[in-house]
Design a protein that fits this description.
InterPro entries: Chondroitin_lyas, Hepar_II_III_C. Residues 313-556 form the Heparinase II/III-like C-terminal domain. GO terms for molecular function: lyase activity. This protein is α+β, with helices and mostly antiparallel strands. It has 3 domains: 26-185, no CATH class; 189-312; 323-561, Beta-galactosidase, Chain A, domain 5, CATH 2.70.98. 35% of the residues lie in helices and 23% in strands. The chain contains 15 helices and 21 strands. Strands 3, 4, 5, 6, 7, 8, 15, 19 and 20 form a 9-stranded antiparallel sheet that branches. A hairpin with a 2-residue loop joins strand 6 and strand 7 (364-368). The radius of gyration is 25 Å and the shape is elongated.
Length: 562
């Protein structure tokens, strides 16, 4: 009862903070209209910062035919501007309004392609650029659009008449002022940091006073200090956000240097700190681990970022502030999530995957989490965040953390895992072990989950020990409950059953690992992999079903087949 009351108090406090933020953001347009004027609009841009993201000539060709292949679908505007017809999905509308697709026009750069981009931009300014409201002015969309307009201004403005140039600069200035007015009304998440990046980028790309450039740089410094942890991770605990932020921070750093401005004091040290954290999550196949909202990673973007890594070295064994552990030996890697959301505000995309792990070997990932879908309905996103979508244990098909469904709290995690105890050691045979315990199932079912995973020094054996126990000071559960240990297999891996206790996992290049659970039946069940580059994809999973308290411990092993 005490915990329920505490949950309610946290929910009320969180809700009141969110109401205040929303009111602040929704009045930003009014405050901007009362203070904004045509004066102070720069007459030109000084520089167009580089965009490190990948270019796809196919997208440029499709846009030439008034088709927009974005957000997992293709939108045929039938000759109209995309801002004069209704987009089929909200995700596609956000991608259109972000203008991130402008980068693909660089694959053509002909006068005709630039004129087409200019016409679409003009249509946006006519239909959505005069009042700061609606989907087009959501904070993350507006921040991406400002960065895209700055980075690809050479495309939009190539061959432009003086009248369009003035309209473009007036609209860009208005958007920058809007971002300045809403940023303080946002929670401490990646959107707030991206807005600070956009504002710092605008301060050096648009003519302004040096004092203003230093002020925006100082504000960016403070936000980097708040959001980038001492171990280089992001406060959201999402590995993919590190890549997304570096794709914007690296061009910003170079723009400061190229123009001879003083680089903000925290910018370069923060970038250097983020690189080891990014490499920590990189699997043997080169992709990033799928924890807490991470989705597919375009290989070209990861490579383009790592090209600037001046801190190259072996990945850390742990990220103590981000709360992950990594076991690695002779081409085999295991990454374990041993943390929980840092706050309700930072849990809006977090997953209930405490103690989940991923395993890769050679050039392939074998055991994964299902990952987050890039563009999908709320039902699929909710399913991807559940504990069952992670390689860990569930009790009674219930997630270890509770996801709130209210519109106000936007699927934040309010209750569940409160404590995670972690221990790391080397055994007498040179093996590397990590043991962690979480209490996410203590309140609803009376059990704590303890997981131990060890990787041999030769990298050819991985041993696991699952234990569900009742703490000494807790009351024993009154009734038995069902439980399941899930091991999600990457879609590229084929499986064949050897007997009821053993399954052979084989990668496309022939590397094989045997999964073995002595004394327990292993089931092969259908699954879904949300984080494939092509979208959601069918896959398979290994599942160990058991009942508590009849079975409270399970030992399993992965062994490389030579």
């Amino acid at each position: 009862m005490i915990m329920q009351l505490a949950d309610r108090r946290r929910l009320v406090a969180f809700g009141l903070r969110e109401i205040g933020r929303r009111f602040y953001r929704r009045t930003a347009g009014l405050r901007l209209a009362l203070t904004s004027s045509a004066s102070g609009v720069p007459d030109r841009l000084i520089v167009a910062p580089t965009d490190l993201r990948a270019i796809d000539p196919f997208v440029a060709e499709e846009i030439a035919q008034r088709r927009f292949p974005l957000a997992g679908t293709s939108f045929d505007t039938e000759g109209y501007s995309p801002f004069e017809v209704e987009a089929p999905t909200e995700a596609l509308a956000e991608r259109l309004h972000s203008f991130a697709w402008l980068r693909h026009i660089r694959a053509d750069r002909s006068a005709e392609a630039c004129a087409r981009a200019r016409a679409i931009t003009s249509s946006w300014m006519n239909n959505h650029g005069r009042r700061a409201r609606g989907l087009a002015w959501r904070p993350h969309v507006a921040a991406e659009r400002v960065i895209a307009w700055l980075s690809h201004s050479t495309i939009v403005l190539q061959g432009a008449e003086a009248g369009f140039y003035r309209r473009f600069m007036r609209s860009l200035t208005y958007q920058v002022r809007y971002l300045r007015r809403i940023v303080r009304g946002l929670p401490m998440d990646e959107t707030r940091l991206r807005i600070r990046i956009a504002l710092a980028m605008a301060s050096v790309a648009m003519p302004t006073r040096n004092a203003f450039i230093r002020r925006e740089g100082s504000r960016l410094d403070r936000e980097l200090e708040r959001q980038i942890l001492p171990d280089g991770g992001h406060v959201s605990r999402n590995p993919r956000i590190l890549l997304d932020l570096l794709l914007d921070l690296l061009p910003l750093r170079q723009t400061y240097i190229n123009l001879g401005h003083d680089v903000p004091a925290k910018l370069i040290p923060t970038i250097d700190r983020m690189y080891p954290a990014l490499r920590f999550f990189r699997h043997q196949d080169g992709d990033l681990a799928l924890f807490n909202g991470a989705t597919s990673t375009p290989a070209s973007e990861l490579i383009s970022v790592l090209r600037y890594d001046e801190t190259a070295g072996q990945p850390f064994k742990s990220l103590p502030h981000m709360r992950y552990h990594r076991l690695s030996a002779e081409g085999a890697t295991v990454i374990v999530d041993t943390g929980k959301p840092r706050s309700a505000e930072l849990s809006r995309r977090s997953h209930a995957g405490c103690l989940a792990f991923e395993m890769s070997s050679g050039r392939h990932r074998f055991i994964v989490n299902c990952g987050a879908p890039k563009f999908a309905s709320g039902d699929f996103r909710g399913l991807a965040r559940s504990t069952a979508a992670h390689s860990t244990i569930t009790i009674n098909e219930t997630s270890s953390s509770r996801l709130l469904r209210s519109h106000l709290c936007r699927s934040s995690i309010l209750a569940g895992v409160n404590e995670v105890d972690v221990e790391r050691w080397d055994d007498q045979h040179g093996g590397d072990w990590v043991r962690a315990v979480h209490d996410g199932y203590l309140k609803p079912f009376g059990y704590c989950h303890e997981r131990s995973i060890g990787l041999s020094g030769k990298g050819n054996k991985i041993k696991g020990h699952e234990r569900l126990f009742v703490p000494e000071d807790a009351k024993p559960p009154r009734a038995p409950v069902s439980a399941a240990a899930r091991f999600h297999i990457h879609p590229a891996i084929t499986m064949s059953r050897e007997d009821r206790e053993r399954v052979l996992l084989v990668a496309p290049d022939g590397e094989a690992w045997e999964f073995n659970v002595p004394g327990h039946a292993v089931e092969i069940e259908d699954d879904i992999f949300f984080a494939d580059v092509s979208g959601m994809r069918a896959s398979r999973q290994l599942v160990l079903h058991f009942s508590l308290p009849e079975t409270s411990e399970i030992r399993w092993m992965l062994k490389r087949v030579e």
